[in-house]
Amino acid sequence: METKVIAAIVIALIIGVFIGYVINIPKIQQLEAELKELEKAAGIVPELKKQIENLKSENEELKSKLAKYTKSYVEEIKKRGKLIVGTSADWPPFEYIEDGNYMGIDIRIAQKIAEKLGVELEIKDMKFAALIEALKTGMVDMVIADMTPTAEREKVVDFSVPYYFSKGHAVLVLKESAIDSVEDLYGKKVGVQLGTTQEEWAKENLKGKAEIVSYNKVYPEMVMVLMRGDVSAILVGDIVGGVLTSKFPELKIAFYVGGSSVGAAVAVAEGAEDLKYVINSVIQELIETGEMDKIFEEEIAKWMIKE
């Protein structure tokens, strides 16, 4: 009898455990599903953190860009008491050094802009290829260096209205040279200034056909290598080419390349709208009054008669 009772109790316990197990299966499955969701969510956390950091970075970048357009560049210059201008003083008659002083067309235009702002003019002379970076980093307020406002440059800086137009790049050769076409440059050494539109043209049109040699300075460096015969031709701006051939009778302009285009404009930092407005108003006034033509004529004549 006791054995039967014990057996019944054991069977009842087993049945109870089985029923309990069956009843708990949905709960277990629910818990397992919830656990998987938690594990999935935990995997998303690092990605969410990364997205948050990216958004913060983008926000800081937007704030920085917005600051460019909300700050007053003119007010900052006036408070400082001087206009800091970047140039490359190796490009007569636009900019050059004489007796320790900066001279040329661009220097005179820069002086007019400084006068309009009511401040002194400070010139920072550097390699042409370094000018855009100097402007981007705030080392200078503006750049005036016979700089052509190309699409590539306008990605990172702004430009004023142009203050002259060009008929193309001048190809300078020795007087006795037979070079008179682009094809005649093939297989020869051609000198250009680093970072200029002349260098861009040469790389686009002469790469693989001629040896392109880049120099930091046009005068005297490029002029001297041409006269020595180290290169067969040099590419310079049309006005600079005219001045150099007038000053050095042993040189001539063989032809022009690149076609007519905007000659030069003043470069300013992105968002420097108030400064650009002042610069544009000075350029417009100089052109309308005829003073711009006078500056060009005087500076070209002045440099051509120098010994």
Succession of helices and strands: HHEEEHEHEEEEEHEHEHEEEHH
Query: Strand count, sense and closure of the main sheet?
Result: 5 strands, mixed
Query: Helices and strands: which structural class?
Result: alpha/beta
Approximately how much helix is present in the residues? Answer: 40-55%
Fold-level CATH name of the largest domain: D-Maltodextrin-Binding Protein, domain 2
- The CATH H-level homologous superfamily of the largest domain: Periplasmic binding protein-like II
Report on this model:
- It is built from nine helices and 14 strands.
- The chain starts with a helix and ends with a helix.
- Strands 4-1-5-14-6 form a five-stranded mixed sheet.
- 51% of the residues lie in helices and 20% in strands.
- Helix 3 (105-117) crosses helix 8.
- The chain is α/β, with parallel strands linked by helices and 307 residues long.
- The chain has helices at 2-70, 73-80, 105-117, 131-136, 197-205, 218-228, 238-247, 273-289, 291-304; strands spanning 82-87, 96-98, 101-103, 120-125, 142-143, 157-159, 164-166, 169-174, 189-193, 211-215, 233-237, 251-257, 261-264, 267-269.
Which features would summarize this protein structure in a list?
5-stranded mixed β-sheet; 307 residues; 20% strand; single chain; D-Maltodextrin-Binding Protein, domain 2; flat; alpha/beta
Summarize the model shown.
This protein has 9 helices and 14 strands.
